[in-house]
Prior knowledge:
The structure holds 2 protein chains of 2 kinds.
Chain A: E1 3-15, E2 18-24, E3 36-40, E4 49-56, E5 60-66, H1 70-75, E6 83-90, E7 101-107, H2 111-123, E8 127-134, H3 143-147, E9 151-156, E10 163-164, E11 177-181, H4 184-193, E12 198-201, E13 217-219, E14 225-227, H5 228-231, E15 234-236
Parallel strand pairs in A: 7-8, 7-11, 8-9, 9-10, 11-12
Antiparallel strand pairs in A: 1-2, 1-6, 2-5, 3-4, 3-6, 4-5, 12-15, 13-14
Chain B: E1 5-7, E2 10-12, E3 16-18, E4 41-42, E5 59-62, E6 65-68, H1 77-88, E7 95-99, H2 104-114, E8 120-124, H3 135-138, H4 141-154, E9 159-162, H5 170-179, E10 184-187, E11 191-194, E12 196-197, E13 202-203, E14 209-213, H6 218-228, E15 236-239, H7 245-254, E16 256-261, H8 264-267, H9 271-285, H10 291-294
Parallel strand pairs in B: 3-16, 4-7, 7-8, 8-9, 9-10, 10-15, 15-16
Antiparallel strand pairs in B: 1-2, 5-6, 6-14, 11-14, 12-13
Helix pairs in contact in B: 2-4, 4-5, 6-7, 7-9
Amino acid sequence: MQTYDMKVVNHREIAECTYEITLQTDVFFPAEPGQFVHILVDPPHQLRRPLSLASSSGREITVVYKTFGEGTRTLANKKRGETVNVLGPLGNGFTLPEQKKVMLVGGGVGVPPLLWLAKELHKNGKKVSAVLGFKSVNQVFYRREMEEYAEVTVVTDDGSSGEKGLVTKWLDPEADVYYACGPNPMLKALEAQLAIPGYNSMEERMGCAIGACFACTVETTDGGYVNVCKDGPVFPKGRVKLP
Amino acid sequence: MSLHVHLPGLELKNPVMPASGCFSFGKEYAQFYDLDTLGAVIMKAATKEPRLGNKTPRVAETSSGMLNAIGLQNPGVDKIISEEMPFLNEYALPKIANIAGSSPEEYAETAKKMSPHVQALELNISCPNVKEGGIQFGTDPDLASNVVGQVKKVSEVPVYVKLSPNVTDIRGMAVACEQAGADGLSMINTITGMQILKERRRPLLHNQTGGLSGPAIKPVAIRMIHEVYPYVSVPIIGMGGIGSAEDVLEFLLAGASAVAVGTANFHNPFVMPEIIADLPGVLREYGFSSAEEAIGGAHY
């Protein structure tokens, strides 16, 4: 495993407080959909920021993040041509399904890893639907990108774009498997509501992101525990006791 | 340039090792470099029974540091011996087991099981993140002496005591532990702290409080080691915000005979091999011909 010094080749605000950064590497970066990277923000920040991959070509990776705190606000200042240190690829990616009809459910910055998954599913001849939830119209992103691979329903809390309400109200009844990434309450609601099999991609605050510090440990339904970083971030539905 | 240092039970080819809790049992960082590059390894705390630890969030970044409240999560001493030690035993480096418990008897029981498998024990009487045990033993000299005495009776290897900085009289604690039979001291564990999530008007960590580590606590660690060093004859393993070979030298000068690196591993997984590679140059630059020569150099 190694770290990569990557060059910023593109960095733009794609929605309110939501940034897309594309980084280029000289050394091949072997990533799969669902994996994430641990990005070093300039000192004095002590912890890296775990961000899921929206795409990777092996030479270029893209991640999307929200400026939620000081670290991500510092990252937002990175200019084209500057260097960012990347640890990864980390965690286990999505397992592609046997089933034909696949529903993707994304909440906010949970959408980016699903975009890469949608591309793979589309390539594999699956019928893909995507339900993308955001707070309001200013925060909607990746709608058009997702439409290349999936039948898209955008849902906003206030109805200012697409449908109104929560994603759970606008699910695809035809789907026979689902993949979800978003806030834990959303994942929990989906598990309760859907009878079909599914996968959750989880977010958690991390320290090392390689399984050594136990910062991102969550309880499993059988009373054990797993690290979101090393054992996840993607877990089959029902594996983790969602907080 | 010799980086070799000698401590009870530990012949170290260099004075740098990972701090307990930041390195699990070595497997993860072995993906980055050969563990035998390190002076030694200090393992994640072992308790008598498995512990799940606290609920998340367990970590938060702070100014020049981080808070953690993991809560001594570990698979229990038996599983550590059967499932984690075989991997570490593929490496020649000295192994130090960190031991925690909620009673002196529990410490002793775990220490007895663990000691035949390692070169030294580090008693964790300073974890700020558990309800029972841990720090209560590290803030009362009588309780600390009792734990140290009980463990000394059963341990086959030297016993180091990891002191808490959350006390008013660190010297008193250090002296009490030495008198109770400690073969060495580890200084310092984390400093209790808290961060408030403004949006939610509540502490960020689920445990509310956490242990502060990283560069923010380095001056506190240096001060405490410097304060204790003249009053004890046992060696000190220094820790608290070390991130460079220059930091290591500062700890040696304050009175540490070896050092442990914690939080910096998360920032840069290669930090320890880099520090070890830089150390000869830094020692030379400041006029030392070996690591041992620098120990306690700031006392006159």
